[in-house]
Specification:
Elements: H1 12-34, H2 39-49, H3 55-66, E1 76-83, E2 86-89, E3 91-95, E4 101-105, E5 107-109, E6 115-117, E7 119-123, E8 126-134, H4 140-154, E9 161-165
Length: about 170
């Protein structure tokens, strides 16, 4: 076999057989490095899905939706809040030298000397009550439909929703 090889030629088949396992490990490692990690993408998705709650915008959308109820007419709605939207932040708790607990808010550096707090959860606002004024407010069927709709969208009980007749 040595006589068949020209000077400087490498017998690739022999090298492949001898180091086949090493080449396969290197190839698998390269493929794994090309696969993106999911953690950074998850953080970006969470940040993009958070919506800010705007009461005026919510009232307007709710009024437009309730106006579609047959017999209700043009609806005006006023909602009151017992608590607004809030965020729960990540906290780091450490025991001090004397056994007292020290809590600090967890922050993440975002480059260029900027830091952001780590948000664990956004809690929706809590409604206190609702007042609905519409021309069809004196019709019991319309009242029931409006109360059920407002209750479903706000989580309020029927005792916290008032439907009144408006000017026609």
């Amino acid at each position: 076999m040595k006589g068949l090889l020209q000077k400087g030629q490498i017998p690739w088949k022999e090298v492949w057989k001898r180091y086949q396992a090493i080449f396969l490990v290197i190839a698998v490692g390269c493929v794994l490095m090309l696969i993106p990690s999911g953690s950074k993408q998850e953080v970006e998705v969470q940040e993009n899905t958070q919506e800010e709650f705007l009461l005026d915008e919510f009232e307007e959308r709710l009024a437009n939706t309730l106006s579609c109820i047959e017999g209700a007419g043009e609806v005006q709605i006023m909602l009151s809040l017992s608590s607004g939207q809030r965020q729960i932040l990540a906290q780091d708790t450490k025991k001090g030298d004397e056994g007292e607990l020290q809590q600090t808010t967890v922050t993440v550096g975002r480059g260029s000397a900027t830091e952001e707090v780590v948000k664990l959860q956004t809690v929706a606002p809590q409604f206190r009550g609702a007042l609905v004024v519409c021309p069809g407010g004196n019709n019991p069927t319309v009242q029931l439909q409006i109360i059920q709709a407002v209750s479903a969208l706000t989580g309020l009980g029927s005792d916290r929703i008032s439907v009144c007749t408006g000017i026609q």
